[in-house]
Amino acid sequence: MLSQAGGTPQASTRVLVVDDEPQIVRALVINLKARGYEVDTAHDGATALRLASACHPDVVVLDLGLPDLDGVEVIKGLRGWTRAPILVLSARHSSDEKVEALDAGADDYVTKPFGMDELLARLRAAVRRAEPAAGEDEMLVETHEFTVDLVAKKVNRAGKDVRLTPTEWHLLEVLVRNTGRLVSQKQLLQEVWGPSYGTETNYLRVYMAQLRRKLEADPSHPRHFHTEPGMGYRFER
């Protein structure tokens, strides 16, 4: 039922596993702890809700078929106070039940039997999506070469303000607010130039070159503004 998989340790991530099948719980605990996750377990819905309230997990792995409460009720109970990602496990295959769980607030759905590699990949993706982008809780973004003030809409390099055009600033802002994430060419074009744009990738090449020239120590070997060929761009500190 379960296959082994590799993965990067997630030392600061706490996972609550909710399932009444001891074999699955044991396999999940072993695989998650081996990758550096902190793990709490619950075998029924009431215990899950109590543990979640006490431990504040970063992500919940939840079986829908619990002995006391339906998993959908547990999802609704969690969603009353937490936005932590909920990854549903279930032997239920009907699309209606999947939609019900997702509508109740689940973030993803894995059908039993499942491969451990797939489940861990989905769990990592759910955690990434839940992380606040730069700018949601951070208005001053600093790198080795420059500082971006998202409130004042200013960029400072070596103690001096850098003059950016409105388009350059808008492009920079979108990238900085998605620090570490790949932003697609289409998304950038539509956010910066408008919804009718989506294929004018030459615009991006021109303006990214301008940003690198103004902000990178070595524009020909950028440290902060990375191109993912054919896909998009990524800002790294």
Automatic annotation (TrEMBL):
CDD domains: REC_OmpR_KdpE-like, trans_reg_C
DNA-binding region (UniProt annotation): 138-237
Keyword DNA-binding: yes
Presence of keyword Aminoacyl-tRNA synthetase: no
Assigned keywords, A-Z: DNA-binding, Phosphoprotein
Modified residues (4-aspartylphosphate): 63
Name of one Pfam family that matches: Trans_reg_C
Limits of the OmpR/PhoB-type domain: 138-237
Domain called Response regulatory: residue spans: 14-127
Protein name: Two-component system KDP operon response regulator KdpE
Species annotation: Streptomyces achromogenes
